[in-house]
Design brief:
alpha/beta
Length: about 450
């Protein structure tokens, strides 16, 4: 159906477009070495174009690939004649290859989208590489082999061969042409710039992270006040986008749908589409960032209860056991938060100092996590009939996932562990992690550092 064009159809005829109910702006950061990922961009664009825009839902897209100009699209309505199955889709704008891992490029695309397709409700969708925390550099050698193992082969979007340079820590998006990566804080700054310039400093309705491993408390904490709902994954994601045709058709037929409905539909349809594959392990989350402050409050209470408790050896053993039984998503120790808290309640000795204060804190923690990713469990339980087992590297049941992970590196309590970039992980704990908003509010960094020092004695 999709035909790539070589000419430009400039958007706008001198008059300002009228406001639409929804604007869905899709940012394809695909200037990466992996040819399969590059090809997947056109498949996803074809899916979007096959549904098309409407008077109430306008869709734009930017595609950045290596060794070619960056293309910008305003997705037209689907032809009304059902007999028409193929029609041309031409770029509305060309720019010389941009750095898609930069604040300026993100803001430029969203400014262009806002001017051409203004809307009352905004969904910003980012499609590209995701690596969770900022302690990982995707450009360091040996990364590709490890990522392939953790993601289950070619299925994972993290798979690829990156340049061997040492550079800045990682990040969220990666741009091969410009050898550039974007930190989570810079990414949040780009979203903040959009809200301040085009949205009256109000949060946007939905932020979609169609990237691997980004459903982390630390990542989403940076986005508080910038978006109401976020869609992100604890796991690696396939190249196939979760921005699927059924989701778009639903919104074209019911443009008055709420942001919550958009986020929940994305999870429900995508997880449902993966339910028949016994080799696919997906944990996509719909997160309510309006409730995130309650999660942070609960985390601060948990840290206050755990800090004195870990002075006792038996409590440190209990924490190690809870860590081992939890589901983890990367070698660097991204563990499921609510599951860990639930497991901790069963392993902490009943006479421990943490028991009296920690038990209600953990209960509140579980509730807060459900609020932060509150539609995930219902969507997964109602749609997915199977319970998959996580890939060999993880060795834990994916069914334990509840929608939000947190950083807890394995080397803190298991000194024999070895993996690529472990030293960077250690440096980050003592020289970087404490600057994250999540650590500053909750004190989770203080807990991790103290536990490490006690374990080394």
């Amino acid at each position: 159906m999709l035909v790539q064009g070589n000419s430009v159809e400039n958007g706008g005829d001198g008059g300002a477009p009228s406001a639409k109910t929804w604007g869905i702006y899709v940012y394809f950061a695909a200037d990466v070495p992996d040819p399969l990922m590059q090809a997947a961009v056109w498949t996803t664009l074809q899916t979007i174009a096959s549904v098309g825009s409407s008077d109430s839902v306008k869709i734009t897209a930017m595609i950045d690939l290596p060794d070619r100009d960056t293309e910008y699209y305003i997705i037209p309505p689907r032809p009304s004649d059902p007999k028409i199955t193929r029609w041309p889709l031409l770029p509305d704008r060309f720019l010389s290859n941009v750095n898609s891992a930069s604040i300026d490029t993100i803001l430029d695309f969203f400014e262009w989208s806002h001017l051409n397709c203004p809307a009352e409700h905004i969904a910003l969708i980012f499609w590209g590489h995701g690596y969770a925390l900022d302690d990982f550099d995707p450009r360091i050698k040996q990364k590709a082999t490890l990522a392939a193992a953790q993601a289950g082969g070619a299925m994972g979007r993290a798979v690829g061969t990156f340049p061997a340079d040492n550079g800045n820590e990682l990040k969220l998006l990666y741009d091969k042409t410009h050898n550039s990566v974007l930190s989570n804080r810079d990414f949040a700054q780009a979203i903040r710039g959009f809200t301040e310039t085009f949205n009256g400093r109000k949060p946007i309705q939905v932020l979609g992270l169609d990237c691997c491993n980004m459903a982390m408390a630390e990542v989403l904490a940076e986005l508080q006040g910038l978006t109401e709902y976020a869609v992100a994954a604890e796991t690696a994601l396939p190249f196939q986008s979760w921005l699927a045709a059924p989701i778009l058709r639903k919104f074209l037929s019911d443009p008055e749908g709420t942001p919550k409905q958009f986020a929940v539909a994305a999870v429900k349809y995508f997880v449902g589409s993966m339910a028949q594959s016994g080799n696919t392990f997906i944990e996509l989350s719909a997160c309510n960032l309006l409730s995130f402050e309650r999660l942070e409050t609960a985390m601060k209470m948990l840290v206050d209860a755990l800090l004195p408790a870990i002075e006792r050896h038996e409590n440190r053993l209990a924490i190690a056991q809870a860590w081992l039984n939890d589901v983890s998503f990367l070698p660097d120790g991204m563990i499921d938060l609510a599951s860990f808290c639930g497991l901790l309640r069963t392993t902490i000795p009943k006479n421990a100092a943490v028991d009296a204060s920690g038990k209600p804190v953990l209960t509140w923690m579980e509730n807060a996590v459900i609020l932060a990713a509150w539609e995930v469990q219902k969507a997964v339980q109602s749609v997915v009939a199977f319970r998959g087992i996580a890939p060999p590297l993880q060795g834990r049941k994916i069914a334990l996932s509840t929608g939000l992970s947190i950083w807890f590196p394995p080397w803190i309590q298991f000194p024999g562990v070895r993996y690529v970039q472990m030293q960077q992980s250690k440096d980050y704990l003592f020289n970087g992690y404490s600057t994250t908003l999540f650590a500053r509010v909750t004190g989770w960094d203080c807990f991790l550092q103290r536990l490490f020092l006690l374990t080394q004695r």
